[in-house]
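In this supplementary section we document a worked example of the pipeline. Step one takes a protein sequence of length 1322 as its only input; no multiple sequence alignment statistics are reported here. Step two produces a three-dimensional model, which step three serialises into structure tokens for compact storage. The input and output of this example are shown verbatim.
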Amino acid sequence: MVAESTRFEDRVLETVKCCQERKDPPLVWAMEVSKCVREAGFSLPSPELGVVLVSSLCFSNNNPYLWKFLDQAISSGLLSSLQVLALLTSRVIPHRRTQPEAYRLYLELLSRYALFLAPVGTNPCREKIVISVDDALELSKNYGFHVVEFGQAVVLFLFTVIINLIDSTMDDWGLQPASVGKISGLFGGGEHQDMDIDSKGNQNDKRREHCELLKKTNAFMTMEVLGKLTENRKVMVLLRLVHLNMAEKFNGLLQRIQFLESHKSVSPNIKSSSQILVRLSANIKRGLDLEYQLNKRQLFGVMIDIGSCSSASSYNFGAGRAACWVPFDIYVETAMDGRQLPATSAVDVLTDLTKTLQVINRASWQETFQALWVSALRLVQRERDPLEGPIPHLDARFCVLLCVVPLAIVHVLEDEREGTSSGNMGTNCNHGMGGTDYASRRQGLVACLKVLGQFSGLLSPPLSIASAANSAASKAANFISNFRNGNDGFSGSGHGDNCVKAGGNMLHLIVEACIARKLIDTSAYFWPGYVSTSSTSLSDSSPVQVSPWSAFMDGANLAGPLRNALIATPASSLAEIEKLYHIAINGSEEERSAAAKILCGASLSRGWNIQEHVVHFVVRLLSPPIPPNFSGPGSHLIDYMSMLNAILFGVSSSDTIHILSLHGLVPEVAASLMPLCEAFGSLVPTSCQKSSTGDEISAYTTFSCAFLLLLRLWKFYRPPHEHCITEHGGTTGSELTLEYLLLLRNSRIAPHNSKPLDNTKKVSNLPEPSSAYPIYIDFYPKLRSWYCQNKACIASTLSGLCSGSPVHQIANKVLSMICRKMTKGGTVSGNASTPSSNSASGSPVSAGEDAYQRPMLPAWDILEATPFVLEAVLTACAHGRLSSRDLTTGLSDLVDFLPASLAAIVTYFSAEITRGIWKLVSMNGIEWPSPAANLLSIESEIKEILAAAGINAPNCYTEGPPVMLPLPMAAMLSLTLTFKLDKNLEYIHTVAGSALDNCASSCPWPSMPIIGALWAQKARRWHDFIVVSCSRSAFKQDQAAVAQLLRSCFTSFLGSPHVTVSPMTAQRGVNGLLGSKISACGIRPSIAPGFLYLRTCRTIHNVQFVNDVILGLVSKSAQESAARWACANSTRLKSSRVSLASATSWAKEVATLGASLLCVAGGVQLVQVLYKETIPTWLLSTREEKPTGVGPVSRILEGYAVAYLVFLSGSFVWGVGATSSTRAHSRRARIVGVHVDFVAGALEGNISLGCDPTTWKAYVSCFVGLVVHFAPAWIQEVRQEILRKLANGLRGWHECELALALLERGGIATMGYVAELIHGIC
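The serialised model returned by step three reads:
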């Protein structure tokens, strides 16, 4: 092979030499050399010939004839222009000073052929040319990936040439930017020795002058060549490829341009070529801004162009504008559902949603932040006068407004500062040619806060918060007064509060929350109108109340009035919380308990400015460290019983656990509770301890509170049908298992330990968690045993219990305790099914033994026996051997004895209700409580609520015989009616209430009105809350009701699509959807349809049905919007752009609302079904009905709206950027890839579609266009072959620009294909 190559080289050199001696024209040279190539058996263009000519002839025979021959050889196809230019680049640029003539000729060739790097036909030649170019320019080494495609070589060649031409010019002009690195050291100036031909030293002065002049002109010609190259659209596309897929490399080019522009005034060379530099800079910027746009001559392009919310005013928050931001309102209101405790932080969700909506709406940051704040303010105002009941109230809503939203904004700003922004690569991106996006985000926040004062109707604080708002306003007034008097802004203690009424509102609270997170500074106090003049003048003479926290920090004891004052007053600084934590760990037993109660008091619920730190300290107190002097035996947690008891009861309130959930701490709380349950559940109880405050503390109460709190986190009582497994191993419900919470908690440990917190999130002296390692349920044998038993109880009936076993003996003792009115000595039979007269051992109970004495056994042992006890007493009641009153009393005694037994009662009764094997009992007021007194009125009120929301509910009950319930349901309901409505028993009420709701949903007939009627008799002040809660049960199993409710949601938000209805005649927008208040003033509570939907959508049994309904509503509404604006006798839209914009805007509003409602109903699982099943089925199905008046425009808008629905649904759960804060992001690549593969297959003709072809084309074009515009990161996650199929299908529709834009964002793998594709469309 070497010999053949040598012979070929010699033959070529000899031929060239002969032609040169004969002075043949270049065409003859080309013909003679081509004979050599053919004789050697090489194909054309010949890479071997290119190597020989450039390496052997360029400088040894550096004369015009050779350069003319190269020109002729390239133009005639004898040589590859790409290879020749690459070889010349690596040889000529380093020696441009010593070979100015060669450099000039190289520039001429480059200017002529760099824009015509046509692909080579034969594969062997292509591969050899790519290898040659790669070796010459070291592309694989410099760009970090193996260059194997011809197109990749073209892209990187052009970029490398542009970079090195700029570098060589700066070097020739004496400019050496230190911050700009070279692509390769091979092309630097002055780093290589001069060639022999220029080192002879026999040049005359005229020759030297000519060379010097040529060197100067070469530099200017280089700039001209750069300008010519970069103004070509093909080169712009290739440069944009580098920008999108190798941003770090492209930033080097931008830095070079910036450097040249910044030295215009100091460099005469740059000044003389300033016009060329301006053109070069403009060309590069044009390339960056060269975004894909649909052909404006087609209707699809017009719709995408006008479909943005950015065309509206930033200050217009009307119904039409509100549709752009309604996901904010829907999410924050959904987060207020106290029955759901999501494991994902609301801060993370809002962070991703904020960035996603800013990109999709093409909005400014001022508008984005303003929409976020307005949604949070509406959230608070919606429940400023809440219904009384065991649900989260204002504390959780203010947590969102004053803690979650500010923290989300902190994350949005920090993501941009750290360079991890998930913004769109193709739009609204910072190209490094101006200011930073971080500054624009911060400026947008400040501007929106200044404008927020205009929303006076939303800023009025509820009465319970008015004092805090006044304090915030007084603080600003004091600051201004001190500043004017020449004092420091905050002089003296920071705990003083003025008594003067400063007219504070929620804007003052928002500003303080932002200042606390360093989002803004105290200059906000000087904003016009922020502090009234009267408040400033009164602040000087206003008396100051000393905060109890000042006394605490001065060393006062935590006792008496001070303790109560600290519980009621939120802390204002992190130092106060840290001191409180250390007392809770290291203080005396009384101090520990007091510190824990204070920490769970107002500092947790209303310490909004430091709440994110307080919740972490609370969680860490659940896992106290091992004392230095602890030596066992047993668990060190027992020594902290009083403190843990106080912290557990404080955390168990509905508001507090909801706040912890909003901060995403449910997994951490679950992991902390497990060792507590294991330790205290294994402890044999002794007599109850009493603290100085009179609180009774025992192992049972501490265990029960921890255990029931743990169970609330993962809905242990769900009926069995909700535990079914989906295709990929997920559950149809939401986070149903304890294993999921532990998996999520363990996944957070490594990043937390390896990544230091930044200054805005750092807590000084933050205690390290005692279990900074993975936790698994197997670590806790007792808990694991109960967990398995609980799942077995749900899955099937109890198996037989062996007589004489330890569990059997314990069951007998428990049964004897609760069945006091039965025959003395009653026991559990061998299968624990019926009570008998004999003990477990078969011998009678001795006369001296108290059969009714409460067994003092570990809680785990009692819980293990409880299901068998329940089966025995329920069977006895069913057979008439135990009265219903005795059954209820016995169950109540069991819960009083061990509150944790409620878990076993709930699990057992829930499972038995779903099995449907128990007899019905009459709720007649004799054996079981009767709801007859108010049942019909409760049902009537429920129907009124549903009717107001557009739902027609049938009558379930009439006057006549008493209503019936299954025995387990009646027993469960009767038990809950015995509970005292005590705030300290809230940890029991929450479990029982949720269990009743789930038991009712498991019955084959409506039972919630019965439950509501009986509870309304017991708790009259909860009447409205009970009625509203009962109204939600209508949707769990009734698909027709769900469909009606969704239609009402669309109508209430969007208004009527008919022009005869004025938008002013009915409330619409967010207030129409969710209501301005949960319950309007009046006798009956009034619930907006959207609010009702948000409280029921996640309990719908067949949640996939929601997909079909929403898709149908979006499709129908889009068709109606087209018909609304169409001419009477034409299928074309009205000619004005306003009508088209209105129809398109309506379609997008419908899709936005539909996507929002879909995502809150089923999250990522439902979106996955939408992409993989619902949309493909809709496209494949043939529409049997043919609506009248549906023309092409209606079909186009239908496809457009459905495309928006699909895209927005994915964006809301996955985000549009390359990174996300939520775990759902990991599923995006697979789901999007499956859907795109389906679309590509249909475009190829492999799938037969049933929908209208116009709808199909509109759907595909708009969906791909939306992804290209707003979510290019999705494209990089799709396989290359699928992208190529999709692009080829689009080209078949003559959508070449869209196909190019799609591939352009496909990553490095598609760069080569794009480079070859542009030859056909540019």
